[in-house]
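Q: Give me a protein?
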Amino acid sequence: MNLTPKQLRILQLIRDWRVRHGYSPTMQELADEIGVSKVTVFEHVEALIKKGALVREANKARSLSIADGIAVPDENRPLRFPLVGKIAAGYPIEKVENRDEIDLNDLLGSTAAKQDTTFALEVEGDSMRDEGILDGDLIIVERRQVAANGDRVVALLPDGSTTLKTFYKEDDHIRLQPANPDFEPIRVKFCQIQGCVKAVVRRY
């Protein structure tokens, strides 16, 4: 897909906002991030929709999302994933911050890794300790919106905080289960799944 540098950056920003907040940025927020006018951003977004890279729900604000099957360009480099922030594995945190990359070539040498719309998060807290996910670890997350019971998920809670827990759909609620007896399960009627953990990377 032939995209301009600004269109590539817009895709990255929309991906990151949806991971952090559960919704896409406004045209003005995109314009502020990349330093162009709102009109220019609108033109780029319309071009991305026509190219099939973005989809937008009619008459709904903040509804831009990456089209199914489209990998953001920084998700397609061998052993390199966008590091989009931190995720609470203790008590939920209000948001994930910072934007960088993690290059697994630097950590794992020539080890091959499967990539498909994948990003990385740094773990904060030890609520997943008994599953071997520790404070300071890096988790490799496959971006998806649905999860099965037993999946370790990045979940956006109704209060806007994010957390890393094991997902269970129960009769009338969702249970987000820690793996540490010092922490209580989080029970909610609804949460947005931002992705499922595919791997844990630990640096010594």
User: Anything to note?
Assistant: The longest helix spans residues 5-21. The first strand starts at residue 54 and ends at 55.
